[in-house]
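Translate structure to sequence.
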């Protein structure tokens, strides 16, 4: 597809500086701009690309623009990063969604499909499963019995949605993720570990996205819940009966143990481990590779294992790096003290 600078500015309410008829047919990262492409600049450290980039059109924060002539056509906006996201979403929508059912799929007679649904080849839809209007189910997806999938969801190839799980509207599930696998529940007995039946389900509220190769376990009794707008990266384990609030972001390789409750608007870094049966408040930031073993109040910033306040960790780490020298000095002081006492 091709667009003019004028058309692009109309989509994002931008002000054009330069040739409004400049045409773009693709996008580039700002560091590798190409003629006929579009890119964006939202930070001062990239501002020099306004004069150096080969891109034909640049979306730029208006605060970065000087009173000079630029080689590219500039579209001035308040927030270039956000405006670029809007354009990408519009472009994706223009690509159109598939509809219809490909051959090789299986549907139980009691299952229900909404309008304008796409189901790819070799997908299996079990009894009493419901798929909402406009949803896209790619090939080789398994949908268990009594599963409910909302409107405009996207489920990519190889995903597995186990029995009784519920997905809200506009959810995205990436390849090879399992929603509703058994929780890790075993009772030790004299004959070994006895499996505890996992009878609950998983509920994803509206606008949740789950990356590839994740596992979200069903509740033992009741539901594991992922709140509205939460975004989950790849390779993440969420255990049974975890409750995650709204608009959280959780980076790759994090693990959250059973029955932990997490509030809203938290940021959880990659490879973070969170023990079970604790509560994490709202607007908490947990930095990568932290180990959280106790409840966390609203607004805290944590780092380390076990995780402590990030500022305390950094101050203490300075001492840790010099620990050998500090121990030598302490030993020397103790030896000097003993010598003085003997005198």
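Result:
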């Amino acid at each position: 597809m091709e667009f003019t600078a004028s058309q692009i500015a109309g989509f994002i309410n931008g002000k054009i500086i330069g040739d409004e008829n400049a045409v773009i047919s693709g996008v580039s990262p700002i560091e590798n701009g190409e003629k006929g492409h579009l890119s964006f600049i939202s930070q001062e450290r990239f501002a020099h690309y306004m004069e150096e980039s080969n891109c034909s059109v640049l979306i730029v924060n208006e605060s970065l623009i000087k009173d000079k002539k630029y080689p590219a056509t500039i579209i001035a906006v308040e927030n270039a990063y956000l405006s670029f996201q809007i354009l990408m979403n519009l472009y994706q929508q223009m690509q159109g969604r598939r509809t219809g059912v490909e051959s090789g799929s299986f549907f139980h007679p009691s299952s229900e499909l909404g309008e304008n649904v796409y189901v790819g080849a070799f997908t299996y839809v079990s009894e009493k499963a419901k798929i909402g209007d406009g949803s896209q189910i790619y090939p080789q997806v398994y949908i268990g019995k009594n599963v409910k999938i909302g409107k405009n969801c996207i489920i990519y190839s190889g995903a597995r949605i186990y029995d009784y799980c519920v997905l809200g509207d506009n959810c995205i599930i990436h390849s090879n993720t399992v929603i509703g696998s058994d929780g890790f529940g075993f009772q030790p007995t004299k004959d070994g570990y006895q499996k505890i039946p996992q009878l609950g389900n998983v509920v994803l509220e509206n606008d949740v996205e789950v990356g590839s190769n994740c596992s979200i376990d069903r509740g033992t009794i009741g539901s594991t819940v992922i709140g509205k707008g939460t975004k989950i990266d790849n390779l993440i384990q969420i255990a049974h009966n975890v409750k995650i609030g709204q608009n959280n972001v959780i980076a790759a390789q994090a693990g959250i143990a059973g029955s932990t409750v997490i509030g809203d608007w938290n940021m959880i870094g990659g490879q973070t481990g969170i023990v079970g049966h604790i509560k994490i408040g709202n607007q908490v930031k947990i930095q990568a590779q932290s180990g959280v073993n106790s409840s966390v109040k609203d607004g805290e910033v944590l780092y380390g294992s076990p995780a402590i306040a990030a500022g305390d960790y950094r101050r203490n780490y300075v001492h840790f790096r010099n620990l050998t020298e500090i121990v030598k000095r302490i030993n020397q002081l103790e030896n000097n003290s003993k010598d003085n006492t003997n005198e």
